[in-house]
């Protein structure tokens, strides 16, 4: 896996095209990527270097945005999704997966998609990118990580109502999340003995059962069993004491019990540089930690920091996984 990062174009009516152009201007040939999409969707005046082989991306990046051409049914109108484009957006994702699985690209980075546009235009039946990628890979269980230079966090339960979290939080789910996170930290981040901090579910980690028993009945016994296997696990820890600077220095990733418990700290600490990573896939996948931002699409207002960090992280993680693979 020594090729470039493959960047799927995402929703062409969103900010993806301008982010790709801005990322190329920032990274150039120092960190080559290849955009899979329609070159006509890039902002007017963007230099384009069309290629037919990802291996040519590094040289092409000296001239313009390296593009593996994937034609769409028509032009893109910023801020207005075109239903005819939906199936092509999906096809681009599948093409990106083919490139990384065949070894032609070292990692996959995905620009944001517009889920409703895909559902309306192509009957897309997946909740989002992550679930579709897992289906393409034949992977039953994947884990979402948000990472930045300041912090790595993993929510055990994700996009469900808060009232459903206690029922959804099972020992099996938490164990799978911890194992996948542990393996990824070794294989994809080059951390030989990962230290993982585990949050409690309740305020003050249940305060000895006074504020809930999930820590006593579920979380603590599981952590004890996994420590006996050799895992370096802290917790369950009260979430309100986990994320200050001294605490963060004691672990490599924090596993939290629900979406906001994990995402509020990282978005507070490093909003612009957060990267969404899918752990557990047979390939590296990153994405900027934001949506299509239809309201500012085409106005040259989009901040490319998260996209740039996602491309950098994909490159670094791809190299780490290649080095760890016999």
Automatic annotation (TrEMBL):
Sites where the protein binds substrate: 129-130, 267, 276, 285
E.C. designation(s): 1.1.1.262
Q: What does the Swiss-Prot or TrEMBL cofactor note state?
A: Binds 1 divalent metal cation per subunit. Can use ions such as Zn(2+), Mg(2+) or Co(2+).
The protein's annotated pathway = Cofactor biosynthesis; pyridoxine 5'-phosphate biosynthesis; pyridoxine 5'-phosphate from D-erythrose 4-phosphate: step 4/5
Q: Which GO terms describe its cellular component?
A: cytoplasm
Gene Ontology terms: biological process? pyridoxal phosphate biosynthetic process; pyridoxine biosynthetic process
Instruction: List the Gene3D superfamilies hit by this protein, alphabetically.
Output: Isopropylmalate Dehydrogenase (3.40.718.10)
**Where is this gene product found?**
Cytoplasm
What GO molecular functions are on record for this protein? 4-hydroxythreonine-4-phosphate dehydrogenase activity; cobalt ion binding; magnesium ion binding; NAD binding; zinc ion binding
Listed binding positions for a divalent metal cation are 159, 204, 259
Q: Which domain of life is it from?
A: Bacteria
Reactions performed catalytically: 4-(phosphooxy)-L-threonine + NAD(+) = 3-amino-2-oxopropyl phosphate + CO2 + NADH
Q: Which UniProt keywords apply?
A: Cobalt, Cytoplasm, Magnesium, Metal-binding, NAD, NADP, Oxidoreductase, Pyridoxine biosynthesis, Zinc
| Pfam families, per the entry | PdxA (PF04166)
Cross-referenced InterPro entries, in alphabetical order? PdxA (IPR037510), PdxA_fam (IPR005255)
Name what cofactor the protein needs.
Zn(2+); Mg(2+); Co(2+)
Membership in a protein family: Belongs to the PdxA family.
Could you describe the subunit structure of this protein? Answer: Homodimer.
> What is the documented function of this protein?
Catalyzes the NAD(P)-dependent oxidation of 4-(phosphooxy)-L-threonine (HTP) into 2-amino-3-oxo-4-(phosphooxy)butyric acid which spontaneously decarboxylates to form 3-amino-2-oxopropyl phosphate (AHAP).
Q: What else is known?
A: The active site is located at the dimer interface.
NCBIfam families found in the cross-reference section: pdxA, PRK05312.1
Q: What is this protein called?
A: 4-hydroxythreonine-4-phosphate dehydrogenase
| Organism per entry | Roseovarius litoreus
Q: Kindly list the organism's lineage.
A: Bacteria, Pseudomonadati, Pseudomonadota, Alphaproteobacteria, Rhodobacterales
